[in-house]
Amino acid sequence: MIMKRTDGSGSNDNVSTGVPASFPFDRTTVERFRKSFPRARWSDQLKAWFVPGKTAARRVNRWMEQEVAGSSVHADSRGRDAYAFDPIVSKYLFVHQDRLEVQTPYSRSVVKVMRDVPFASWDPDRHAWKVPYRSYEQLHRRWAEIEAAALRNEPEARKQRAAQRQGSPQELASRAHATERRRRRYPLDPNDLPPLGRPVMTRGYGVIVFIGCDGEPVDGDILGTQYADFPDHHDYVWGRWRPAALDELIKTWPSRTKTEIGDALWWQPTLDDLRIARKAARGLERRRGRV
Fold it and tell me: 55: which of 65, 69, 101, 278 lies 20 to 30 Å off by Cα?
């Protein structure tokens, strides 16, 4: 890389072959860097150290790799000390010599929290989250939330909640809504029908593709119970729909502005809408063995 060499005052003196090197300020790190690169000079223009030389890029990259490895070892050692001083005692945490493992019943809350733990990664073979010791303090801060979510999703706890919901108004309403969704029909204004065969955003059903409308009127009782949030000044007809396929969602051009729903029954999806729909469609195709 060819660039202008800059001295400490920020002025240019001569053109030299070399590369800039930047890293978070730490006095001991700077001392190690200056010892490894005695010809390096700070550049106010680049806001970085400039290392001259034709082999500077290779030497700086090697030094950076060694620094990262060394800092990781130090951070892991500090994490082991933190665990020894204040250990997490839980049936969901397994301790190994080189890492920690978090293994819980499936929970969206656990997944969300674990994604916020630095360097944590999912191991599909062990069905567990691998966490390096350097992240122990971050894991410790979030552990109460992780354990509470895991306990809520234990099979027995889920069975108890299901038994408590049995026959409740909430369960009956949920079943009715699921049954209605399986019919794959949707109330539409006959004077404002959506385009057929193209993904559109809808109320409550997300991004779907309408495939037809034969003019069948919507019963008022069904509208009042299953579509209570719909405007009440339309004579609705049923529209037939299907889920949008992944390739259709990928090809769909998103709306550049967020639609004010108001009385709208369907509208052009935004990029955020499409991202959610694509993720769901990708998961469905993966489960079907297509991906």
Answer: 69
